[in-house]
Write a structure and sequence with these properties.
This protein is α/β, with parallel strands linked by helices and about 260 residues long. The C terminus is likely disordered.
Length: about 260
Amino acid sequence: MKNILEIENLGLNLGSNKVFSDVSFTISSGEVTAVIGPNGCGKTSLAYSIMGLKEYKPEQGSIFYKDENINKYSIDERARKGITLAWQEPPRLEGVSVRKFLALGLESQKKEVTEEQLESVLKEVGMSPHLYLDRNIDDTLSGGERKRIELASILIMEPELVILDEPDSGVDIVALNNIGTVINKLKEKNTGILMITHSEEMLKYADKAVLLCHGEILKKGDPQEISVFYQKECRDCEVDDYKSHREKRQQMQAEVKNIG
């Protein structure tokens, strides 16, 4: 499989705080790469950097999408090239109907929108079209419902690279199954997927995993092996000093080598 995304020695500071550094990995088309790690290790910030959010501009390293360096591209430019981010907390859009929201993705690509397409993607995420198409995306919808609608919008756009930030956050078991269905559908369409998660359930859908520890990669490889190590060995760190974080990470890295 051909790499669709290559991250090389990426580093990010937010103010005086070092969020992550020297992060390198690749994602191939039709492949799911999971990034896991404890709270505060830089997972979501990494996702935002790849998507191109203005406040998350890397200080070092490169992001290559389809062999093109996209470091200087805006979030809109990256979206037009086929990169999509599904937020951990899906947006509330007052006055915007589900129908309009789903159609926007195709309209931005100058593609025709049909009623059949809209109904089909809602059914894919377990939602009845006649109950939801004309509802607004506001507080009358639960977080889980908004998340499934966002996943439906991704399905209809057919992006080449999708970033899923904690896709199972705040959803029930039914929605979890819908998320798995969407991931498999995207893989069938050869979409590359970067999944930010700490869920063992979500890791079942990953082809490979990256473990972040204090802003640096501790381990890469088989998702289940990394999950076992993460559950047994990793803890949220109470130390705020980055140098101390780095020393602890190096100590754990040595332990990983001894284990493997």
